[in-house]
Amino acid sequence: MTMLSRVFGFARDILVANFLGAGTMADAFFVAFRFPNLFRRLFAEGAFAAAFVPLFSRSLESEGRDAAMKFAEQAFTVLAIILGLFVAVIEIAMPILMPFLAPGFEAVPGKMEVATEFSRIAFPYLFFISLVALQSGVLNALGKFSAAAAAPVLLNITLITALLAFGGDDEQSGRALTWGVFAAGIVQFIWLTWHCRQAGFPVRLRRPRLSDKVRTLGRRTLPVMFGASLYQINLLIGTILATTISDGAVSYLYYADRVTQLPLGVVGIAVGTALLPMISRQLEAGSTEDANNAQNRGAEYAMLLTVPAAFALMVIAQPIVATLFERGAFGADASAATAQALVAYAIGLPAYVGIRVFTPGFFAREDTATPVKIAALAIAVNIGLNLILMQPLGHAGIALASSISAWLNVVLLVGVLIRRRHYSPDSRLLRRGAGILAASAMMGAALWGGADILAPWLQAHGLIRWAALTALIGGGLALYFILARLFGVFVMAEIRRTLRRPPKTPNA
After folding, report:
1. What is the rounded CA–CA span in Å between residue 26 and residue 173?
2. In terms of DSSP H, where are the helices of 394-426?
3. Going by C-beta distance under 8 Å and a sequence separation of 6 or more, which residues neighbour residue 146?
4. Taking 50 as the threshold, does the pLDDT of residue 334 lie above it?
């Protein structure tokens, strides 16, 4: 389902590039989308679940369905009240906040006003998607992952529909997309409400009560949000600074980030979402060896896909960006600038996924403080590197700073887990990790040569360019998996076992 979401996401971004390009309206929409989307990523893709799922799972295991349902509904009600107040305050304060979120927009007449209008339309999306996050946590704790993972598909379908049905010139298209964001929140909320009801857990509003469990959830949510959100916070910081570089810089970073979201979303979010309830159950049962094995296998499967993806994105960034986006309002100069950002983001791709893999090792032990401290240090480094690198490298320096800080974050996470004896990389992970790196490097070299051979077709237009890029990527994938098998990186029987549906909890 996450893969399907990324496919629809690519279709959405291709249309956005065609209608808006990388100019003033595109920048305004991306800033307006980034603000609630930051919270969407924090809540809907792991951070809220990292605080909620262990508490809900423990209640389900030890106290039964009724107690778990009561806790979920109390949390749902309190969250709805807090979100409603928060969204109302932000809506009123948006004209004051926007100069801080996009300081460079003042230099372009009318750009700040459009960004403020778009942000006011899009921000209520946060209310609905945060409630969706709680519903997703309930379903994930029950071992039901597909419905929650499908919710982003609905976001992309809604935005595509809004653009095709109501798009026109760049301003009209930007406004249609912004209203599409608002509508998508409602659509996703209805979708998860129905699936919770089907699962026998219809989470409803009830009389608000700050029970001990809800208080505990509140104490853990904010630090978990911060600790698990390095990537999104770095993107927000980068967006703010990019507004001061040039008209279009925000758009270059956005399109580059969207390409990296395919491996990051499919691997990082999927592995992280599955690991947290699994490790939580294993630790609750006293199976520390099983928890360590789950952590190692999560890291192994993450490396299996993200390391070659990083090599490929760095080597063939230009043809990927040109093929996906270069049409309509998105020209060759925008392609070149976006490709520079993509190379810089790709350097940090394995690290971003690694953060998703290793933070569950802390959250499952109900330790939210340590990831927060590590993330705070990494974010401070990111800000410093942004200010240093954006001078000589422009928008690409912002992307590179984000990647470097992500590597610092994951190295510190792993180091602390090892020092506390909560994690130990096994010989299989080390052996197969070396094989993955070797196979990826060889594939990268082959892609480099292949791109040179196919250059005339990769620079063509229409189906010829798509066919050439498909052949290049397909050949690279085939070579990588052949090399990976030769190096003993994976066995098909293990892949099949990994893809099986996890067992349901006894009370589910």
Report:
1. 9
2. 395-419
3. 1
4. yes
Residue listed under structure tokens 């930007």: 174
429-452: b (≥16 Cβ within 10 Å) or e: beebbebbbebbebbbebbeebbe
Range of lowest pLDDT (184-188, 291-295, 335-339, 450-454): 291-295
348 with 378: CB under 8 angstroms?
no
Helix axes 369-393, 349-363, angle to 10 degrees: 160
Q: What percent of the chain has pLDDT over 90?
A: 27
CA-to-CA distance for 125 and 39, rounded, in angstroms?
A: 9
Q: Are 155 and 184 in contact, with CB atoms under 8 Å apart? A: yes
pLDDT at 230: 59
pLDDT above 70: residue 274: no
pLDDT tens per residue, range 47-76: 566 677 777 777 777 777 778 788 888 888
Beta carbons of 139 and 145 less than 8 angstroms apart: yes
Return the minimum-mean-pLDDT range out of 84-93, 192-201, 492-501.
Answer: 492-501
- DSSP output for 197-254: HHTT-----------HHHHHHHHHHHHHHHHT-HHHHHHHHHHHHHTTT-TTHHHHHH
Residue tagged 């910081």 (tokens): 237
Instruction: Number of helices (H) and strands (E) in the chain: give both, helices first.
Output: 22, 0
What is the mean predicted confidence (pLDDT) over 86-106? Answer: 88
- The one-character DSSP state at 331 is -
Instruction: Note the pLDDT of residue 40.
Output: 63
Contact 2, 265 (CB under 8 A): yes
Q: Which of 310, 319, 337 is nearest to 393 (CA)?
A: 337
Torsion angle in degrees (nearest 10) through CA of 12, 17, 20, 24: 120
d(CA 185, CA 13): 18
The C-alpha atoms of residue 312 and residue 474 are separated, in whole angstroms, by 11
Residues 405 and 381: beta-carbon distance below 8 Å: yes
Dihedral over alpha carbons 164, 166, 167, 169 (to 10 degrees): 150
207-211, 350-354, 499-503 — most confident range: 350-354
DSSP letters spanning 62-80:
HH-HHHHHHHHHHHHHHHH
